[in-house]
Design brief:
This protein has 392 residues and is mainly alpha-helical. It is 73% helix and 1% strand. It contains 11 helices and 2 strands. It has a two-stranded antiparallel ribbon. Helix 9 (292-329) runs antiparallel to helix 11.
């Protein structure tokens, strides 16, 4: 069945065809998962959204959460919460942002297509292609890892004890060797539901590092344009345009920080615990006969990617905005008039503080935050391992 979320004029208004493939794929995820909130919408799409959210969001998350009350031991409960529930909470926050902040996100997308963001010569075209190539590279690497993590859940079919891939209790429905049809239906429901939840996570992550990547490209372009200034006349012609572009990038950075703070604060808070729990679960079961350990390993890698991408691209924004001062100083400022030199000096003072992003002013989007989180995860993992050895 073909789902029509809006008419042709609405599609043209957003110009989705003009974006790179990762963006177009995230928009399709919005549509499939009922998050596309453009107006107007057809009654068919509204009905589809209700069915999708009830079947694959409300019922799925209720059933998953109820499993906390059927865990046999406290250790199972703790590892279960860290392994699945925290990830699902982050997914729900991202879905709410995509739906309720749809217009703000689309406005950010439109800004990346503005004339200010378009290259004007061959050198800028190379910078643009390089930046877009990095976005595409990390997108394909990320989506491959996450798809492998979901696909690895099929390894549970190799077990003879009819285990479910994500949670055991399924609304009281009997399944097992005597109820194989029920087992197949419930198994498919869990895998399909988790796959769509994974797509929602990917969509918001990709959109975030697309925005940060585009800001990074424009910072490279700004640096190149500042370095090309040689005379007071060139400075006078280009100064206001360069300042306006910098101010635009500054506003975009603040808008992105405000928009995505709730979801990524939760993600940074949970990621270390999730990675730790996954590593512990993998190491405790890892042997040649336990193929499901591969699922945990791939899940851990995808979680590490999920946390790495905003840190990597956020780190580039901070680094490149800091390098702008060097680019300005590399211009022929010493050949300019006194007034222009004073203006450049004030601009350098203005850029003393580089562009940075934080999740609720607590977690920085940089590589230091990433390594700190991994160190914390390893410390907790080592503690769990030590306690496990004492018990044995």
């Amino acid at each position: 069945m073909k789902i029509e979320a809006q008419d042709t004029s609405t599609i043209d208004k957003y110009r989705w065809r003009d974006y790179i493939r990762p963006v177009r794929m995230t928009v399709w995820t919005w549509r499939i998962c009922g998050l596309y909130n453009a107006k107007p919408q057809t009654p068919l799409y509204r009905a589809y959204r209700i069915v999708f959210n009830v079947v694959l969001m409300v019922v799925y998350l209720f059933t998953l959460s109820f499993n906390m009350f059927v865990m046999q031991t406290f250790e199972q409960l703790v590892l279960y919460i860290m392994y699945i529930v925290f990830t699902e909470i982050v997914m729900v926050l991202k879905a709410l942002i995509a739906y309720y902040k749809f217009d703000q996100i689309c406005d950010l997308f439109r800004q990346t297509l503005d004339s200010d963001f378009q290259p004007v010569d061959d050198e800028e075209e190379k910078l643009y292609r390089k930046g877009v190539g990095e976005i595409n590279y990390y997108f394909y690497l990320y989506i491959t890892t996450t798809n492998l993590a979901i696909a690895s859940s099929l390894l549970y079919l190799l077990h003879q004890d009819y285990r479910m891939p994500y949670f055991p209790w399924m609304l009281g429905i009997e399944y097992g060797s005597t109820e194989r049809i029920n087992f197949g239906i419930m198994f498919a429901y869990q895998v399909i539901g988790m796959y769509f939840h994974m797509l929602i996570n990917i969509a918001i992550d990709v959109q975030l590092f697309y925005f940060l990547g585009m800001i990074g490209i424009q910072l490279d372009v700004l640096g190149k344009r500042f370095r090309k200034i040689r005379t007071s006349e060139e400075f006078g012609k280009s100064f206001m345009n360069l300042i306006n572009l910098y101010q635009k990038l500054h506003r975009m950075t603040r808008d992105i920080e405000q928009l995505y703070s709730p979801a990524f604060f939760a993600q940074f808070s949970a990621s270390g615990l999730v990675i730790c729990a996954t590593a512990y679960k993998t190491s405790s079961m890892f042997n040649v006969y336990e193929l499901t350990a591969i699922q945990n390993l791939l899940y851990m890698l995808s979680m590490m990617f999920q946390m790495f991408l905003p840190c990597r691209f956020g780190n580039e924004v901070t680094r490149k905005s800091h390098l702008l001062r060097t680019s300005i100083y590399s211009s022929r400022w010493y050949e300019m008039g006194l007034y222009d030199r004073k203006t450049l000096h004030m601009l350098l003072q203005r850029m003393n503080k580089p562009l940075t992003l934080k999740a609720y002013y607590f977690f920085n989007y940089n590589l230091q935050a990433y390594t700190t989180t991994l160190n914390m995860a390893y410390s907790v993992y080592a503690l769990l391992q030590r306690n496990a050895l004492k018990k044995s």
